[in-house]
UniProtKB/TrEMBL annotation:
Keyword Repeat included in the entry's annotation: yes
Keywords for the protein's UniProt record, in alphabetical order: Repeat
Protein name (database record): Pentatricopeptide repeat-containing protein
Pfam families tied to this protein: PPR (PF01535), PPR_1 (PF12854), PPR_2 (PF13041)
PANTHER family per the UniProt record, alphabetical: PENTACOTRIPEPTIDE-REPEAT REGION OF PRORP DOMAIN-CONTAINING PROTEIN, PENTATRICOPEPTIDE REPEAT-CONTAINING PROTEIN 1, MITOCHONDRIAL
Gene Ontology molecular function: any one: mRNA binding
Organism of origin: Sesamum angolense
Each PPR repeat, start to end: 147-181, 182-216, 217-247, 291-325, 326-360, 361-395
Highest taxon, organism lineage: Eukaryota
Length: 517
DNA sequence: CTAGGGTTAG
């Protein structure tokens, strides 16, 4: 409880600041400087600058070191740190006071500890690493060291966000001050390396783990095998696996469904169906129980090889073994049906999903709408769009673009005058879609405008095209992509393209820059 | 969901 008490002078200053009793900014500055000098000279027990403290923001850290040559900067940096520290302590104090009457202080500290580590873990899962690290630092400064699990959550968050620099730093911190890294810690860092394509570093870590007294496990192995498979290095993956298993000795743990799934998937994706099936049969021969993911890999594999009968056969086997299809299964199936032009079957499968307790997701809609549009069925695609909106799923620009494009393409196929009139109607539908996008807070992107321009250009409606072009430029805040729109006009209508070019020349420098790029 | 496998692709 001692650390909760505020030194008298500090609290006095703090109170005065909070009460706003300083009359002028200058006097504030002076008092701060004086206080700051006293603070440093007296070397009071405040743990403002802890050796373990890290900066959540790198610039912040840089400022502090830059400030050495500039006393005023240093003063304010230190003041920031001081105020923050004081506020933190006040918060802690207030919390403990409000709980003080209900239980013993040990119980309070324990509750606080577990609520803090729960908070860190939740923040990491939400990807709020800055806040998570801040809370971590706060705890460390109060000598309340989070457990390994929490450290691993932090590490995982850093790795998933691609911040390998801080991930490495965190592991070093753990080695220096504890808690000691576990196998999961090293595995997390390994998969982080793989994520940013530093496979050599991952391999390096794999072979040096033992130096820290941690033996790589099955997960470590799978991480590497998976990465090698992703790169198409199937043979290397297989060799590595064999080598590891050899060194490991036969502790009966040679069969791992996940390893087999990774390899099967890898073989299917590189077009080696024979090896894929060998892998799969191997699993069955060993009597390993197969799970939904493994079935999905098989179903996807047969989709790739075009064996629709084997796809359905696998589905039947899946049902027979008591596994129900999940969202991946349905999406794989729908994707395949759409690609082979069987949109009716795809729509049927779609209708089955909610009844089987698996509601369609963004991907399902995307594939079915795209499939219908490729088939020229803009009307039905639009129907699914409404369905999607009813499901409270906000379509990404791509979906809108695909439908706009489908409307535009109608004119390409049918040339009769009467149909042309109908297509003009579709142009207005396209514009309606565009307006609906804006209304729903979905920003049209460069492709949206390019598609709309195509609609106009195909029908020689160059004035509208130009108008839309400028509208798009304005809304998009010119990017490199603007060149696409520009090219679209030129390509379709060379002569008028020159007129547009003249218009652009007289446009703002920002637009010009975009065009020149 | 402390770490490892599966669905798309303007």
């Amino acid at each position: 409880m001692q650390s909760l008490l505020l030194p008298a002078q500090e609290s006095y200053l703090l109170l005065r600041i909070l009460n706003g009793s300083f009359q002028a900014l200058d006097s504030l500055k002076d008092q701060i400087s004086v206080y700051f000098a006293q603070f440093f000279n007296s070397k009071s027990g405040l743990d403002l600058i802890d050796s373990r403290s890290i900066s959540c923001d790198r610039n912040e850290k840089k400022e502090i070191s830059d400030g050495e040559g500039e006393p005023r900067g240093a003063v304010f940096n230190a003041l920031d740190a001081m105020l923050k520290g004081s506020l933190d302590r006040l918060k802690t104090m207030r919390e403990s006071i409000s709980w003080g009457h209900t239980g013993s202080s040990d119980a309070i500290l324990e509750t606080k500890y577990s609520s803090d580590i729960t908070m860190i873990r939740a923040l990491c899962l939400e990807g709020k690493l800055g806040t998570a690290l801040w809370l971590w630092r706060t705890m460390v400064q109060q000598f309340r060291i989070p457990d390994v699990l929490t450290h691993n959550y932090l590490l995982n968050g850093l790795c998933k966000s691609g911040d390998l620099g801080r991930a490495e730093w965190l592991v070093k911190e753990m080695l220096r001050h504890g808690p000691s890294p576990t196998c999961a810690t090293y595995n997390t860092l390994m998969s982080g390396y793989c994520l940013v394509n530093k496979v050599d570093k991952a391999l390096d870590l794999f072979s040096t783990m033992a130096d820290h007294g941690i033996r790589p496990n099955r997960v470590s192995c799978n991480i590497l095998v998976h990465t090698l498979c992703q790169k198409g290095l199937l043979e290397d993956a297989r060799m590595l696996l064999e080598k590891i298993l050899e060194e490991d000795g036969s502790d009966g743990e040679t069969s791992d469904l996940i390893t087999s799934t990774i390899l099967t998937d890898g073989y299917f994706k590189t077009g080696n169906m024979v090896e894929a099936l060998t892998c799969w049969n191997d699993v069955f021969q060993r009597g390993i129980e197969v799970d939904v993911v493994a079935y999905n890999v098989m179903i996807h594999g047969f989709c790739l090889t075009g064996d629709i009968n084997l796809v359905y056969k696998s589905l039947c086997e899946m049902f027979k073994s008591g596994h129900l299809p999940d969202i991946f299964t349905y999406n794989t199936l729908i994707s395949n049906l759409c690609k082979s032009g069987k949109t009716n079957e795809a729509c049927y499968v779609f209708s089955v999903m909610p009844r089987m307790g698996v509601p369609p997701d963004h991907l399902t809609y995307k594939m079915i709408i795209q499939g219908l549009c490729i088939n020229g069925d803009a009307l039905r695609a639009n129907h699914f769009l409404s369905h999607m909106l009813e499901d409270s799923l906000i379509p990404k620009p791509l979906i809108w673009n695909v439908i706009i494009d489908a409307y535009g393409k109608c004119g390409d196929v049918e040339k009769a005058f009467s149909v042309k009139i109908k297509c003009f109607g579709h142009i207005s539908s396209a514009l309606q879609l565009h307006d609906e996008m804006l209304r729903r807070g979905c920003n049209p992107d460069i492709v949206t405008y390019t598609e709309l321009l195509k609609c106009y250009c195909m029908r020689n409606k160059m004035e509208e095209a130009q108008e839309l072009f400028f509208k798009g430029i304005k809304l998009l805040q010119p990017k490199v992509g603007a060149v696409n729109m520009w090219e679209e006009i030129i390509e379709v209508h060379v002569k008028d393209g020159f007129t547009v070019f003249l218009h652009i020349i007289s446009w703002t420098p920002g637009v010009l820059a975009a065009i020149v790029m």
